[in-house]
Amino acid sequence: MDTATAVQGTVRRDVTRALIERSIAIEYARLPEWVRTLARQCIIDWFAVTLAGARDPLVDLLLDEAREEGGKPVATVVGRGARLTRAQAALVNGTASHVLDYDDVNLNINGHPSAVLVPAALAMGEATDAGGIELLTAFVAGYEFACRAGRLAAPGHYLRGYHATSTVGGLGAAVACARLLRLDPERTATAVGIAATQAAGLKAMFGTQCKPFHAGMAAEHGVRAAALARRGMESRTDALECRQGFAPVMSPDLDPAAALGDPEAFFLRDNLFKYHAACYGTHSAIECARALHAEHRFAAAEIENVTVRVERGSDAVCNIPNPRTGLEAKFSLRLTTAMALCGRDTADLAAYSETSAADPILVAMRDRIKVELVDAWPLMQAEVLVTLRDGRVLRMLCDAGVPGTDYSRQDARLKEKFVRLVQPVLGDARCTRLLERLIDIERTSVRELMSVAGAEVR
Q1: How far apart are the first and last CA of the chain?
Q2: Quick check: 85 pLDDT over 60?
Q3: pTM of the full structure
Q4: Structurally, what CATH architecture does the domain formed by 280-399 represent?
Q5: Is the distance from CB of 166 to CB of 199 less than 8 angstroms?
Q6: Which conformational region is residue 343 in: left (phi greater than 0), alpha (psi within -120 to 50 degrees), or beta?
Q7: What is the three-class DSSP state of 237?
């Protein structure tokens, strides 16, 4: 056996422990300012989309079930004026944060990290009376662990049909909660094992209520895994890489080099925020269509046909050809592109409904759009070609998978999104108060945040 093979063999055996040691080593005082900024932005965005989703019928259903189950009320449900157990609150809040499919994305996970990590950390942090610095640090620790675990099993895990938001997200949630409970490396590894054996979530459920439920379920699993590890429950401590463990069972790929490479890097840098209330896989096409419409000012009647070119994997994610419901509309490249070409506001929550899916103007445009699948493209890249009746062909290429680097501009856009989503729910004064506390999160506590965000929605 040569040296390279020997080193690779060692890495394969120790990957879970190596990732945990790195996460535990993360300290607020040593975080670069840009990491703190992005972490605050993620938490601000999470509260915005969760408050906006707090009145969804699925949230009502889960809240009713939790109340019937009962339990010790120690954690707050955002926007509902209710208190539940830690695990129940994580489930309900996690589901609410993903129910609109308006939450952030990271392609290292191939999923939605904040929708799982924030509700789990809030539930555990409120129960333990954590401060804002502890919350932010636990979030970063869980986020980095989830990204690296996602890279370990990529790309086969997602391609096999697992919803990584749920499966990989639950691992990160366990690490974030273990951090808040101040568990040592051994107990943190145990928590990861307990979370790994609960990991589930099928991409086949996209377009149904099970997709947002996946995020809540993973947050609940993370809370429970850390709590049980603290009490002494046993588990494998090499759950990610061991024979018949997480990656070997749930993916044809096992890439320790991708998981452990560039050890000083923060994958939070790759976080992608949503400014359209649909599946992120539709965003590049929306941006192309919006840009073409703004530049050329064509009317819908002038369009002969449209081709949307996307990476082949989009077919299994966001290519519902003829959506019938608001949920299905969020996963339809044809309909969301039609909305953009017709000048509809794709950031408007009300734009995705059964009525919109059946709108004769949108349906007529949708039926002029063809989706073409392309091999070996960037995952989120799209090209839109609009052929006009006068013979002109207009083209636009966009890759929404490239993260922003102008954090000041990003901050302004996220605050605008926050106000747009939260003000109708909490009113002007409470919206302003919550945003101020989130901006200054290091000087507040989880309980203070939840006292403002937990108010019953209008």
Answers
A1: 67
A2: yes
A3: 0.91
A4: 2-Layer Sandwich (3.30)
A5: yes
A6: left
A7: coil
